[in-house]
Amino acid sequence: MKKIIILIFIAVIGIGGYFGYQFVMGLMSDKVIEEVANNVSDEEIETMLNEPSIQQLIGENVDDIQNIDLSKTDLPFKTKEGAIKSLAKEFSVGEIKDIASKVQSGMSSEEKAELYEMVTERLTEEEMAALKMIAIQELQKNQ
To answer: Nearest CA to 131 among 33, 25, 24?
Structure first.
């Protein structure tokens, strides 16, 4: 009888942990996108839109980026939650906290260049394209 109770207890904790993790990842991705949206200029969005990897993805749909279905692409991740999970694998918690605090307090162009270099060193070109595409879609939603 004790074994059954312990197994049920472990199952409840495991299920609660899974759903708690999913909830926190959703909140965290929303917060990161919100912070990025508040700190990206229209000029920076234009620069991203003009990059060859993004041009290849959007093709003729420049005015309709919101409606591009990323699930039909071969990008390594297709949602902001997927992007956050991928970033969490590449960066330590300390690095993520440091980046978040810099973004919140405002970044100089030199700091932005350093951050871009650090991210491009750790992510593949496909991951960078996916990250930019998701960021552009989310930024346009928030405008």
So the answer is: 33
